[in-house]
Amino acid sequence: xxxxxxxxxxxxxxxxxxxxxxxxxxxxxxxxxxxxxxxxxxxxxxxxxxxxxxxxxxxxxxxxxxxxxxxxxxxxxxxxxxxxxxxxxxxxxxxxxxxxxxxxxxxxxxxxxxxxxxxxxxxxxxxxxxxxxxxxxxxxxxxxxxxxxxxxxxxxxxxxxxxxxxxxxxxxxxxxxxxxxxxxxxxxxxxxxxxxxxxxxxxxxxxxxxxxxxxxxxxxxxxxxxxxxxxxxxxxxxxxxxxxxxxxxxxxxxxxxxxxxxxxxxxxxxxxxxxxxxxxxxxxxxxxxxxxxxxxxxxxxxxxxxxxxxxxxxxxxxxxxxxxxxxxxxxxxxxxxxxxxxxxxxxxxxxxxxxxxxxxxxxxxxxxxxxxxxxxxxxxxxxxxxxxxxxxxxxxxxxxxxxxxxxxxxxxxxxxxxxxxxxxxxxxxxxxxxxxxxxxxxxxxxxxxxxxxxxxxxxxxxxxxxxxxxxxxxxxxxxxxxxxxxxxxxxxxxxxxxxxxxxxxxxxxxxxxxxxxxxxxxxxxxxxxxxxxxxxxxxxxxxxxxxxxxxxxxxxxxxxxxxxxxxxxxxxxxxxxxxxxxxxxxxxxxxxxxxxxxxxxxxxxxxxxxxxxxxxxxxxxxxxxxxxxxxxxxxxxxxxxxxxxxxxxxxxxxxxxxxxxxxxxxxxxxxxxxxxxxxxxxxxxxxxxxxxxxxxxxxxxxxxxxxxxxxxxxxxxxxxxxxxxxxxxxxxxxxxxxxxxxxxxxxxxxxxx
Length: 753
Prior knowledge:
- The structure is a single chain.
- The chain is α/β, with parallel strands linked by helices.
- The protein has 5 domains: 8-97 and 194-280, Rossmann fold; 110-183, Arc Repressor Mutant, subunit A, CATH 1.10.10.160; 317-372 and 558-652, Rossmann fold (3-Layer(aba) Sandwich), CATH 3.40.50.300; 382-495, Orthogonal Bundle (PCRA, domain 4), CATH 1.10.486; 707-752.
- The strands form 4 sheets. Strands 9, 10, 11, 12, 13, 14, 15, 16 and 17 form a 9-stranded mixed beta sheet that branches. Strands 3-2-6-7-1-8 form a 6-stranded parallel beta sheet, sandwiched between helices.
- β20 (730-735) and β21 form a beta hairpin.
- The longest helix has 23 residues, at 505-527.
- Keywords: ATP-binding, DNA-binding, Helicase, Hydrolase, Isomerase, Nucleotide-binding.
């Protein structure tokens, strides 16, 4: 294996194959190249069987790219090499060992909407309305348990977090897990905890996997939660040949359960671990890297790296102060037009923002300037109603115990099975301790035994047709191509005709989506040796759930400016980057201020990620005044701007303006006064920039009555009342659409506006 093209630290990371190793890979340091070379070295030079190597990552795209690169580097057949996501690996293990946990191998993986449906049913059973408790509150609570490695029946005394078994939410969790088990289903979090349960309860199964995987590699280790940490520990406990790769300075997903302790405390778990640092950046200019390093060095939760680069010094960072958010959007759009005129491709330009709500004005002005753009992480194909409907049909074929899927399609298209009839059938299933499908099957086979349900002849005929159709496809599932089975479902279920008869634009769009789903099945068949409906379902469920928020489909890259949240930008790079909204209470966010130093440090890591996406030119913009939910707010520039030394930037302010107070960095020679925004500073009040200590030590913001808030799912709203303290704090919110919801603050994705 030729490693002459690697730098010295990368070479060490490739050659140190025995024992625990942690590679701290800074932004743009050639992490992926180093990781794939390490795997290729194991296979080609050390002659390790691909069967004995397991590499875990967080997106299917990353796994595919790693496999392709390794395949081009080695002569050996790597068919048995496992490069996969945590969840795909766990799904594969559980399919193989399902009987140990009382499941069958054709279990269903529930997505968020299906989880919500189960939770809503449990709340209803307890006489709790969704106005009193949002299903999402319960779901966040359960996710928190699973992120920390909990499964039903696990000894709570071993947990390093607090759980109250008497908590009402814990009761909901237990009943939820029982419902999933009854339906032969798991959710996304249960894939990880299911394997932990399997390995803990059946040591002989764990030993088999430990004996197989002699070498374990983990990418993006800073993004792992405690459950994934436990899984890594269990798998590597015997061989101890574990290599984790990550960057604590890019740990920005604590809200998803990522635990920075996993990377900070690695040496406590593996006392003989070798720590290697990749500190040479190959992406950004010297000016950008040195400035970003100065900012992140203020964090205390880090192992410590000194990033450097041999790249040219490059242009200064531009910090642009705008009178308001409209002027900010106008500046960004006009500058992009200038870049286009200078022959800079749109696809090399990106605009980042802290939250999605900031994108509207930017989009408006880009459209005014006729600048093509795309919002990365928009509406997803597999979340569209008609697609989910047909996939529910497929799920019933694959797993007829999936009552949630069956209840979704039992009256789609309409078969006369209303809510009352469905409830009768579900009650019959409960009384007979069987699934909804078994009741339908029995009803069709022996209608005389179910006269008490009182179904009309029309409904009986429709259900008979549905059961017959599903059974016919089940019989053919091993011998007929999945795409052909899908077409049979689509047409013989009446769904296609139902849309066709509507003859409106929306129905036409839905038909096109269903045709696209058919194409997806055909492509799946072409790229898999043994394609089945079950494997197709598993692939799309895992792919759509693990896909990175900012993952771009390169086949659709047609020269557009990319708009995205900074969380979505992680792992990407662009020649020209605009970081918008660099203001206190925006970036860092209100919520992070309420979390104290821990929250501020994560926001600083996010700022560092934003800066290090830029290869050539970095623009950072902020507005003196920003319109938020009908109110003009004056927040002042982000503290992170004050952490960039003067020598790295030029600060541009509106022409004719006066110097704002509290900014020593704004009075130096690198302030440019030629940025004309056709406005006068007299219209904007002077603000004072608070120091880091003043903000951290200030009284924390409360969700007081009348406060304007933003919920990640429901949007903008106003707090009606609040009660409780600490983890029991609850608030009621009225949203802009009139809906009223109650949330447990600890688990709800809510921030002050």
